């Protein structure tokens, strides 16, 4: 059974982006480094000898399409398994059937797992023995780094292919093919699409073939609704893009404008503005993990020890995004954003570490003072390693007057806590300790 099969009847009402998926490698645009003429993966597909692999790349770069092409070219049983809608019980049934077909009919089973990063460790473990013994050939697809999202034992048994973002020229050819294809595309529709409009669509799509084809379809529909000779201009394409995506380009200027607006609203302690810009990004389709990475950075850069709980809240939001994804994690992000906006602010950590980096670059690898070096061998002890070291727990209040900086940086102080929030208590504590060792104290 081929779950990718589409009869003419099933194409009725199907989005243009799905109808125009390439069926052969000759139709496939981009990724020449992995499926260009003579490349190992292309040869494996053509010879029906594909081993277990994972496709890693951004949305719209061709991961699912390559899986479909393998399905078309292979004589194997090809099944699709979604990490979003299915789990281990369904996998067991598939494995049992695959084992039977291999044993009695000598038919291999290729299992395509979309969004494989959404499986947890235990679920990924379930694939392991069946990939290893050849019961199934696994093809995974992910937008996330497999090094972090796929368990090491499984990763060691698959070949990872990195798909790159499509270039504007690839997208323009994809749009032109859709306009000329009378069976699957828009070739049977009387419509004039300007070259400038095609350029605009390729730019707005930013490497995502699905976005380019969706924008083409919506623009043609809008042009036909206006009456007269249907004509798609760059102006119309831009208007449609604004209505559809709130003018949000994940790698363009507006992307950075919005994240800047969110960051500055947080820094200025404005929870309402912060919520608005969060909503703008999420509703436009931004990856929540990108946003939460910025929130984690903000928690240390702009809040820091003024409220140490800020980093805990931000990391918890990250875990929520991993665990439930969108749209369910939107409130976890909203909670983190309002907490960070309402927290006391301090950039002492940011300033301190900036000074540390400057000194590291300026002075290079300064030697560690002998008294705080470890001395695991007799020779090291004879050379003075660890000599004179004061063990803090043997002293009053568990603190000692002891130099920890290299000789050239003796007395250098980087961290200057502010009087904001919890950091005020840190400042008072450090000052009290320093006073203990000042002459006459």
Key features?
441 residues, alpha/beta, Rossmann fold, Helicase, Ruva Protein, domain 3, Zinc Finger, Delta Prime, domain 3, 5-stranded parallel beta sheet, two-stranded parallel ribbon, 21 helices, 7% strand
Question: What does the model show?
Answer:
Residues 1-12 have low confidence and may be disordered. It is globular and about 90 Å long. It has a five-stranded parallel beta sheet, sandwiched between helices. The protein has a two-stranded parallel sheet with strand order 6-7. α11 (195-205) runs parallel beside α13 and α14 packs antiparallel against α15 (271-283). It has 21 helices and seven strands. The longest helix is centred in the N-terminal third of the chain and has 18 residues, at 88-105. The chain has four domains: 31-162, P-loop containing nucleotide triphosphate hydrolases (Rossmann fold), CATH 3.40.50.300; 168-245, Helicase, Ruva Protein, domain 3 (Orthogonal Bundle), CATH 1.10.8.60; 253-342, Zinc Finger, Delta Prime, domain 3 (Up-down Bundle); 370-436, post-AAA+ oligomerization domain-like (Orthogonal Bundle). It is an alpha/beta fold. The protein has helices spanning 16-19, 32-35, 40-46, 63-73, 88-105, 121-125, 128-132, 146-149, 152-155, 168-180, 195-205, 209-225, 234-245, 253-267, 271-283, 288-303, 309-324, 330-342, 348-363, 378-382, 421-436; strands at residues 53-56, 77-82, 109-114, 136-142, 159-162, 192-193, 231-232.
Number of domains: 4
Report the end-to-end length measured between terminal Cα atoms.
Answer: 84 Å
Helix content: 40-55%
**Tally of DSSP helical segments:** 21
CATH class division of the largest domain: Alpha Beta
Major sheet description: 5 strands, parallel
């Amino acid at each position: 059974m081929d779950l990718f099969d589409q009869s003419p009847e099933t194409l009725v009402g199907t989005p243009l982006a799905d109808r125009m998926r390439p069926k052969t490698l000759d139709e496939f645009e981009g990724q020449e480094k992995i499926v260009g003429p003579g490349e190992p993966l292309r040869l494996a597909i053509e010879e029906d000898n594909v081993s277990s692999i994972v496709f890693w790349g951004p949305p719209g770069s061709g991961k699912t399409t390559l899986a479909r092409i393998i399905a078309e070219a292979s004589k194997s049983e090809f099944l699709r398994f979604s990490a979003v809608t299915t789990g281990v019980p369904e996998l067991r049934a598939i494995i049992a059937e695959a084992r039977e077909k291999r044993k009695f009919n000598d038919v291999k089973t290729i299992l395509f797992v979309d969004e494989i990063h959404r499986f947890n460790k235990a679920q990924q473990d379930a694939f392991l023995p069946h990939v290893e013994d050849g019961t199934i050939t696994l093809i995974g697809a992910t937008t996330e780094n497999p090094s972090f999202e796929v368990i090491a034992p499984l990763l060691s048994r698959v070949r990872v292919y990195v798909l790159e973002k499509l270039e504007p020229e690839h997208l323009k050819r994809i749009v032109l093919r859709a306009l000329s294809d009378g069976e699957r595309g828009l070739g049977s529709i009387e419509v004039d699409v300007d070259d400038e409009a095609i350029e605009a669509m390729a730019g707005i799509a930013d490497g995502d073939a699905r976005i380019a084809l969706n924008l083409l379809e919506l623009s043609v529909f809008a042009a036909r609704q206006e009456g007269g000779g249907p004509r798609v201009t760059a102006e119309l394409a831009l208007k449609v893009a604004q209505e559809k995506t709130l003018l949000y380009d994940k790698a363009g200027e507006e992307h950075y404008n919005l994240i800047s607006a969110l960051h500055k609203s947080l820094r200025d302690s404005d929870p309402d503005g912060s919520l608005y810009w969060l909503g703008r990004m999420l509703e436009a389709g931004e990856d929540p993990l990108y946003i939460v990475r910025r929130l984690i950075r903000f928690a240390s850069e702009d809040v820091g020890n003024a409220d140490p709980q800020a980093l805990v809240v931000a990391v918890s939001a990250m875990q929520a995004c991993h665990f439930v994804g969108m749209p369910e994690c939107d409130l976890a992000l909203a909670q983190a954003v309002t907490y960070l906006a309402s927290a006391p602010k301090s950039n002492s950590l940011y300033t301190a570490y900036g000074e540390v980096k400057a000194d590291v670059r300026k002075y290079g690898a300064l030697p560690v003072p002998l008294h705080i070096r470890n001395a695991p061998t007799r020779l090291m002890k004879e050379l003075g390693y660890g000599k004179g070291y004061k063990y803090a727990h043997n002293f009053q209040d568990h603190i000692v007057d002891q130099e920890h900086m290299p000789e050239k940086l003796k007395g250098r102080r980087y961290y200057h806590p502010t009087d904001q929030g919890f950091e005020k208590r840190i400042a008072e504590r450090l000052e009290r300790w320093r006073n203990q060792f000042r002459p006459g104290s």
